Amino acid sequence: MLRNRVGRLTATVLAGAMVTLGVAACGGDNSSAKPAEGGSEKPAESTGAKVGLAYDIGGRGDQSFNDSAAAGLDKAKAELKLPEAKEMTASPGETEAKKEERLRLLADQGFNPILAVGFAYSGSVKKVAAEFPDVKFAIIDDAAATGPNISNLVFAEHEGSFLVGVAAALKSKKKNIGFVGGVQVPLIEKFEAGFTAGAKAVNKDIKVQSKYLTQPPEFSGFNDPAKGKTVAEGMIDAGADVVYHAAGGSGGGVFEAAKAGDAQAIGVDADQALTADAGVKDVIMTSMLKKLDVAVFDFLKSYAGGTVKAGETVYDLKVSGVDYSVTGGKVDDIKDKLEEYKKKIISGEIKVPSTNP
């Protein structure tokens, strides 16, 4: 216990020294500092925040969920001049103890605030945050981990999914569409519920095929493109001509199946017509935008300004926390109808279900 206290004290002192001396560590970014009038360069001011970010499975580079969070961190690095940021990634099949160890390591090393990307960190955030009451924690996609130093950044995924469900139904020539979920947990069921409701709002008789890649506690469904491809191929063989995925890195396989099967695909989280591999971008009709980048940046900005609040912050259609993408122009011809539905959701005229009937 004494060793832990000494370690934490040392990390805190070092962190303070870094801020005092204006040191820019590995995550620093002074590239936008402007020269002073006299010709010498004046370093940009730093927020002094050493940010720790723990990704879900797949990490930076998954072209979807984690990359959206990474984009928020990158924006904060550039605009808030963070002196240091450390990124760590979960491994498939790891234990709860391993997640706790990752968060505890960041806190012990003086990182504050710390963001956990994904509901899988719920238990570990709640436990470790209690051990470090002076550190601010944020968790994305979870409202169960509560505490005076925990901010819960959650989204109305069902609202955004409703809109891409409308798009799928309007674009489907076979009146047969598919949904591929990464892991069957309540969060991903929200995507399915909204997607199905949106499609049924257009055509109550449309066929919606749904399948999940894995069941908890197996979470590899978020990072298994081969399995995503196999499942999507089965849906296309069964008549689906539009397939929506909420499966993280597994979505790459869904896109491959759509490409090979002359179908269209719907991406998730990021605008995947921009982020996916070049060979499959042309099959992505639209994406359900879940703006993790906005949530991450907002949290870091509030930390820098001393205005961080514990508890839920909900990113819904009303605050543009979710939306649909228009890259490639494939939904331009139905955009007016999509906007009509969006207005009805925002006004409350349409109540989008977050669970399946």
TrEMBL record:
The protein depicted here goes by the name BMP family ABC transporter substrate-binding protein
Q: Which UniProt keywords apply?
A: Cell membrane, Lipoprotein, Membrane, Signal
The answer on whether this UniProt entry bears the keyword Repeat reads no
- Pfam hit, one: Bmp
Membrane topology classification: Lipid-anchor
- What are the subcellular locations of this protein? Cell membrane
Q: Where is the signal peptide?
A: 1-24
The record ties this protein, via Gene3D superfamilies, to: 3.40.50.2300
ABC transporter substrate-binding protein PnrA-like domain mapped to chain residues: 56-355
Main location as per UniProt = membrane
Query: PROSITE patterns under this entry?
Result: PROKAR_LIPOPROTEIN
Per the record, its GO cellular-component terms are:
plasma membrane
Record bears the keyword Acyltransferase: no
Could you tell me which InterPro entries the record lists for this protein?
BMP_lipoprotein, Peripla_BP_I, PnrA-like
Q: What is the gene name?
A: bmpA
Similarity remark? Belongs to the BMP lipoprotein family.
